[in-house]
Amino acid sequence: MRTVDSVVDTLETLGVEFVFGYPGGRVIELFEALAESDIQVVRPRDEREASVMAEACGRLTRQPGVLAGQGPWIGSIGAIGQMEARLGSSPMVVLTESSERGEYSTLAPYQQARGDYGGLDLSTVLDGITKEHWSPRTPTETLRSVQLAFKHAVAGRPGPTAVVFDGDAITETVPEDPTPPVWEPVAQTRTWTTAPPETDVRAAAEALKSAERPVIVAGNGVHAAQAYEELQTVAAAYDAVVTTSYLGKSTIAETHDHAAGVIGSFGHEGANRIVSKADVLLVVGCRLNPMDTNWQAPAFIRPDEQTIIHADIDPRNTGWVYPADIGLVGDARETLALLVESGHRSSSWAIDRAASAREDFTDPLCESDAVPITPQRAVAAIDSVVDRETLVTADSGNNRFWLLQYLQTPAPRTYFGSGGVGGMGWAPPAAVSASLVTDKNVIAVAGDGGFAMTMTAVETALEYDVAPTFVVLNDTGLGMVRQMDDRIPGVTFSDTEFADIATAFGARAERVEVPENLESALTAGVDADEPTVIDIRIDPEIQMSETLQSSFYADVGGLHE
């Protein structure tokens, strides 16, 4: 059997359903072999979109999303999804190649990326953006490398891994009895769940039981471990308020009795206040990046006055930003389950405080009849069509902060945003991927800048017969940058008719300019059996940063994001 056929057998054995990619170089042999398999190849318009789709697939399924493509483009425009996966802890496997040309490789290179004389160095690029990568030179090494890529994509803190196919090594015949041997894929890719030791769990439980104002900060690690039930159970057991980081949004239904909203520089004021008043903080699966911590505002989190319990699968994250009193190193689901077993407490503090904090999910402008449409009103309309079976993908920029504030997620695992590396253009291809790998209605929300970067995702949705709704919050500019300083060149765009473009692709489309048309347009989009683009014209004069910045963020000068 050819090595490439054995690679495809490995993918099938490991349960891969989709490969997202673009044919080129020596991955063409891989695409040829995939044509004979049951795995669906999803080919968007370029490697950037393919990389985002693979990352989103991994984020949603918690199994590695697979990206395939030619080396120079996987290492450039295809790096977007890999960087998001690396910083956002999404499992992902990249199958690529170095475009080497065998005996011609010592001549003037063309596209060659194996890093030697005169060529590009794909390995160095991958070294900077993946957890691990391999450059196998033989059939045996290739098969073992693919297995290890799947293993390490999910082992410990999830992330992207890559295998660089090398020329004839993927077309040569696999030895029947190689030394060293190639083991069966499921056995070779097996991983084990980690949990913190009993002494640390006991100390954390005692701290939570003795707390008067216990507060949980739930981060992306709860999504990664799918520890949604365990999070709710711990909150109930210790009568703790649950706040989330931005990446942790929808780790708990934001309608839940213990839920208080999202913390951070553009988070909910009530949630931020609750964290600042806590006597014991349980941080679960959150690195506490500068946006989460209100850029280290002194009055926000105070290690000298608060007991900090930091639970994370990566020991580097535990106590990284703030000194931790107790570290719980292990899988979030296992850690939370152990905490439930170790103790309980009861009071009436959490329910009342969380209910008060949830009032921040609305604002008078959410009901405004003003034209142009206020961003608050637009998000309130989106909120009205989002139910427990709807998934929202959010882009970077002002749009995600409006959503953070005014979209109150009705169930866990219903909201995912670009927040690892935070690249614009993430939401549209992520929505197409989500439509392929889940049975949910999907709404992508992006600004006009981000949507224009990847609007060909609409055509991809048509080609693969899925029907996400693409919502464009259109203020004809780079809203977040423009509101920092409108003297910056290039912050205003020409007025693009996205509805016309979508119609040209063959999709449904509607331009919405008055608030009374919002709900009907969104309902029709969600109910449609074809992709729909809704171009909502919002007021560019409403300042996101001035409207939403927390008081703690203001205290440190409102640093630029």
Oligomer status = single chain
**How would you state the average pLDDT, rounded?**
95
Strand arrangement, major sheet? 2-1-3-4-6-5
Q: How would you describe the shape?
A: globular
Just name the CATH architecture of the largest domain.
Answer: 3-Layer(aba) Sandwich
Features:
561 residues, Rossmann fold, 3 domains, 18 strands, 16% strand
Describe the 3D structure.
With about 550 residues, the chain is of the alpha/beta class. It has three domains: about 5-190, Rossmann fold; about 200-360, TPP-binding domain (Rossmann fold), CATH 3.40.50; about 365-535, Rossmann fold (3-Layer(aba) Sandwich), CATH 3.40.50. Helices cover about 40% and strands about 15% of the residues. A six-stranded parallel β-sheet has the order 2-1-3-4-6-5, sandwiched between helices. Strand 1 (about 20), helix 2 (about 30-35) and strand 2 form a beta-alpha-beta unit. Helix 3 (about 45-60) runs parallel beside helix 5 (about 80-90), helix 9 packs across helix 13 (about 330-340) and helix 11 (about 230-235) runs parallel beside helix 13 (about 330-340). The radius of gyration is 24 Å and the shape is globular. The N and C termini lie far apart (about 50 Å).
